[in-house]
Amino acid sequence: MPEGPEIRRIADRLGKVLAGHTIEDIWFAFDHLKPFETRLVGQRVTSVDSWGKALLTGFEDGHVIYSHNQLYGVWRIMRRGNEPGGRRSPRLRLSTATHSAWLMSASDISLWHREELAEHPFLSRLGPDLLTHDVTVDDIVNRLQGSRFRRRRLGSLLLDQHFYAGIGNYLRSEILFFAGLHERYRPMDLDATQCQRLAEKILEVTARAWRHAGVTNLEVWREPMIEAGEPRARWRHAVFNRAALPCHACGTPIERITVTSRRLYYCPCCQQDKTPA
Fold it and tell me: Among 9, 53, 208, 242, which one carries the catalytic annotation?
């Protein structure tokens, strides 16, 4: 399932063809949204943003289309007049003078006014988006040390979308590895240096995944593997999905455990469990 960086990349792609352009035609598959088609035609798109796994398409009159890809939704961008093939069902089409953006298979689509988004049943429960909301290292440090999160084990906290939106399973393993922390640590167990490093890696690893289409491994480690012809699944991440393979940093075999019913990968040498018994 795509995580925050993948959804941010979709927002970037949509923004290139929609933001700053006037919607000349719009189509909703759902009857309760059809009355809004005429209202949005002629409106200029002002922004396409992501928040966790949701997309927010903003218009100059203050309306925002909320959409969530869910498990099977995908966006298709093509020249206007062309239609996407395949078996997926179209749910939404936004057309400018030159391009159309089609949302296929997703059913979670609604129209809001920007001032009402704080009341959205999904968005209202999310923490800030690491790639959209100008989050800083200091912001993360303060959030880690706050009473709401400081007693939570990192293995569960990082997947909690109330903490920060967009961190999914592969990012959890990668962030903890690069921070050098075992998942059993709680923010309250960390000294100032460890807390600062964790905050830096939360931002750094997420941004690397966004820039490199889901790749979180360091260039110095992945490039020799690419040159050797190894598959992407082998060099994409530093630890995730690499159980029994050697750690890039120390050579110790990577281990896989289950935390919050989901798989987590770590290096037992680089991420030693030194939490209180």
Answer: 53
